[in-house]
């Protein structure tokens, strides 16, 4: 089965070989307090910084999931209040997760086709502004021009970005925000169970000011341990090893971004004037890593069913668009010939 599911998604072909290698090298039994682990953690972080162009003065931490990152941010970075800016289901979940911990979180939900401009929005009471950069549920994306505008206009606030389905697939200008996070089962082409948090010095300073140390994953504890290339608890060592191996072979992010953009152009041409349409009409807010394709619910059901028969797994619609859309991942691990195969299948429905 070829998976176009936007997470968990198709893993790189080399993953089984890397797992065997991990077994051979003793990685599966490796102590997370050993020199070997510290070397692995350090190497992985250095590779991440190099390949994704993360600024050197930023700190990279390991967590277990993007959902865990939502919780860490709520408990460890918010002083008084956060504002959540989003269009879809993942942004909403993040807001609700924060609301359960900090009862005064506020939300600003914007229209799917709307390109955000800062003129309309100011959040002066908030000290953390949460932006879902790539909304996996509906295939929208927020430009970092907007993220920068938000940051420039709110010097009192930390800007925190959920880049779960874009990090590793598109170039992110990390300098424009203070905290970015993603899990590895989307653009990184790896099995689930590991997430990355990327923090500016300002975010680390904020965590210190908040001074929260009541949880095993309190940000202050995580930062302290990472200074020794360690984690607060036994982490998913295998997943870190797999990430390191995949990164060794990964192109520079600008290269990857270019490849995905080209593939996206191919998809735009493919769906042009057909009965299968992009849910998002405004190209300026359309994601390049997750495609949401809209048609009648009858056809969606039929296409998904027939695709499965042809050995192709399409992403289900999500949230409000569950029955009227299907989703296609445009992630780096997916091969050109697999895209061709999917297009050969879909052309009968255009
Ligand atoms: C998948 C996804 C999540 C949740 O990731 P987990 O690793 O399952 O916690 C959060 N935000 C976005 C934008 C996602 O695509």
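Sequence proposed for the structure above (350 residues):
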């Amino acid at each position: 089965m070829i998976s176009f599911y936007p997470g968990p998604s198709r893993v790189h072909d080399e993953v089984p070989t890397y797992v065997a290698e991990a077994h051979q090298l003793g990685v599966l039994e490796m102590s997370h307090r050993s020199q070997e682990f510290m070397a692995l953690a350090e190497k992985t972080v250095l590779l991440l910084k190099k390949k994704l162009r993360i600024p050197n003065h930023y700190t990279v931490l390991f967590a277990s999931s993007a959902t865990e990152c939502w919780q860490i941010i709520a408990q460890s970075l918010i002083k008084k209040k956060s504002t959540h800016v989003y269009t879809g289901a993942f942004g909403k979940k993040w807001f609700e997760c924060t609301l359960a911990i900090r009862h005064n979180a506020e939300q600003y939900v914007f229209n799917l086709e709307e390109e955000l401009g800062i003129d309309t929005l100011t959040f002066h009471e908030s000290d953390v502004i949460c932006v879902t950069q790539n909304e996996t549920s509906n295939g929208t994306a927020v430009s970092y021009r907007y993220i920068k505008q938000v940051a420039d206009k709110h010097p009192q606030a930390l800007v925190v970005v959920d880049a779960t389905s874009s990090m590793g697939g598109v170039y992110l200008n990390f300098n424009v925000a203070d905290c970015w996070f993603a899990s590895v089962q989307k653009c990184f082409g790896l099995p689930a169970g590991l997430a990355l948090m990327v923090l500016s010095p300002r975010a680390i300073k904020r965590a210190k000011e908040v001074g929260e140390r009541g949880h095993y994953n309190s940000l202050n504890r995580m930062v302290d341990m990472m200074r020794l290339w360690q984690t607060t608890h036994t982490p998913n060592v295998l997943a870190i090893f797999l990430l390191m191996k995949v990164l060794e072979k990964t192109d520079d992010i600008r290269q990857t971004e270019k490849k995905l953009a080209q593939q996206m152009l191919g998809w735009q041409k493919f769906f042009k004037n057909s009965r299968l349409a992009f849910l998002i009409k405004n190209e300026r807010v359309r994601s390049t890593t997750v495609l949401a394709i809209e048609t009648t619910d009858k056809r969606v059901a039929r296409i998904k069913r027939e695709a499965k028969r042809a050995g192709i797994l399409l992403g289900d619609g999500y949230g409000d668009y569950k029955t009227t859309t299907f989703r296609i991942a445009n992630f780096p691990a997916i091969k050109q010939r697999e895209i061709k195969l999917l297009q050969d299948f879909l052309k009968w429905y255009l």
